[in-house]
Amino acid sequence: MSDRRTAILEAAATVIARRGVRGLRVEELAEEAGVSKALIYYHFEDRTGLLRRTLAFVNNRAERYTAEQAAAGQPAAETPAGPLRRLEQALLLELQDLPHVRENSTAWGELRASAVFDPELRGELALASVIWVREVADQLGEARPTAPESALTASAERLTALLEGLSARWLSGILPLTDARTRMREAIGVEVAHLAGLD
Amino acid sequence: MSDRRTAILEAAATVIARRGVRGLRVEELAEEAGVSKALIYYHFEDRTGLLRRTLAFVNNRAERYTAEQAAAGQPAAETPAGPLRRLEQALLLELQDLPHVRENSTAWGELRASAVFDPELRGELALASVIWVREVADQLGEARPTAPESALTASAERLTALLEGLSARWLSGILPLTDARTRMREAIGVEVAHLAGLD
Lengths: 199, 199
Known about the structure:
homodimer
């Protein structure tokens, strides 16, 4: 991906986290990215094209910082943590009071909410959700290898939807971050105990 | 509440569900409610006042249709359903493909998301959440009277946050309604089994 294109997507995430999808104006985006409006249209055709690519960008960036921080928290010399610890780590990385996590989660929440009004964003959003649910189901399957596939998927769907719900409450300032993290950690335990009971 | 005031709040919920909070224009609202712009400012002072009252209105309306439908589903002649059945009924009423449920849930999701950008909405939103969590915790307590209070609250926080997460996925068209309802029903079972294990 060209540097200019990346700069535009980064700026789009910033502006959306600041003003929401409906507050995204191409003038402000061009200024934030340090490019011309024409270049934005050259790279992304129209507003929908830009929003779809920003959704994919925000999603990939979340995966990247998740992977980086998971790696940073796990020195090679140490015994690798168990599958549940890795799952907990991956999910809780989305609930951190760091500027880039806040920005990314806010932009994601906005883009997701705007898909209610904009069917053209749904394909990108559905794909991201399916991949995420699959990953969490795989991690649950490492912890509970004998649980049925359908039960793993259902648990993963609940855990990821819960994370989005808790994240929205945290970002809108009505649930303290520590409570959101505690609820998420407990939920993983509750779901894993449920899967163990299905063996 | 005066009829005119109610008409404005109903229209505000409709317009927000149609265009989002940022798409709410006083001109369109006045037209939808069949009143003058001046009357809107007379009743609600400013945009923030209007949004705060709309949030409370949407929330009260959800409680009202929940109560009505729960009553309708439970003829007086029948034995009252157990506490779990009532809880399931109350939560699943938010996941129904009916125009008024869709409108109410979409408007609620929009108002909740806009609290990320508008701290003045947070008081109303936090109050509504606390009351809802309290109600669900009480219903869980009827089913599991010996579970500790803190565990009931934690379960209720998870179930209500999950419902918001599932509802957002359903409304944005990425999770079929039947799946959302199934996940919610399962989650109640999983949480109740968890509470039973704490006795």
